[in-house]
Design goal:
Length: about 250
């Protein structure tokens, strides 16, 4: 597993060799600092804590100042932990070079907030007749059967829309620059500007790789068991009087 913290700058477009315009989202990824390394022996799981975004030191608490001082780095605004990310030491810098062009990643961030919204915008419900005589245009609709004397849970109602922690899967890295600290993602709509973005290797791909490794281990175990059950090996051990057969 590998990941990186960044900030959405905005959108632009680039052109392919054939002249086709490709819409991309620009993510600023200044070098992340490893502020903590968690191991299986000390913490019970493997993870790497990354910090991103410089802020004034007087905005930190005393414990936070001590935490960043251990990594020999300045005060950071954002700190996130990425499971199963290893191979780094305390104080190391993680840059955009960990990714490759064409690689698929999952992007986690806060979605764009829309405030208090009605059911048509929030749940994509249909409007009523728009003629003047209908008297019901953008309402909630039926509340359900009257015999139950209550409204069932899950009824689409007006309320807060957006500003949720969301993850968009399977986004392709079109380009990146370690010198200019940016990553271009092929996506038309991706969260809100100036929001913290967490780029992680495609989770489904990681699961497939783990299953592939487990299958390899299972094949190796089957081969070992087959060798143990081999009659020639048993006869050899009998000839050397290393085992005894009991009835």
């Amino acid at each position: 597993m590998k990941g990186l913290l960044g900030k959405k700058i905005g959108m632009t477009q680039i052109y392919s060799k054939t002249g086709k315009a490709i819409p991309v989202t620009v993510i600023e990824v200044t070098p992340n600092v490893v502020t903590q390394v968690k191991t299986l022996e000390n913490d019970g799981y493997v993870a790497t804590q990354l910090s991103f975004g410089d802020i004034r030191e007087n905005l930190l608490t005393k414990s936070q100042k001590t935490h960043f001082a251990k990594a020999n780095t300045t005060a950071k605004k954002y700190t996130r932990e990425i499971r199963d990310m290893n191979g780094y030491n305390l104080g190391d810098n993680v840059t955009a070079s960990i990714f490759q062009k064409g690689e698929m990643v999952d992007v986690a961030s806060v979605s764009k907030g829309h405030g208090f919204s009605g059911p048509i915008k929030r749940h994509n419900q249909s409007t009523g007749p728009m003629g003047h005589g209908s008297g019901y245009h953008r309402g909630v609709g039926s509340m359900g059967s009257i015999t139950n004397n209550r409204i069932f849970k899950g009824k689409n109602m007006p309320g807060q829309y957006g500003h949720d922690n969301t993850t968009v899967q399977n986004l392709q890295i079109v380009d990146f620059s370690e010198e200019n600290n940016f990553v271009l993602l092929f996506q038309k709509k991706l969260h809100e500007d100036k929001e913290l973005i967490l780029l992680k290797l495609k989770l489904k791909l990681v699961a497939v790789e783990r299953n592939h490794e487990l299958k390899k281990v299972q094949v190796m175990l089957d081969k070992v068991l087959q060798e143990i059950r081999n009659e020639d090996m048993v006869e050899l051990l009998l000839d050397q009087n290393q085992i005894e057969i009991t009835h």
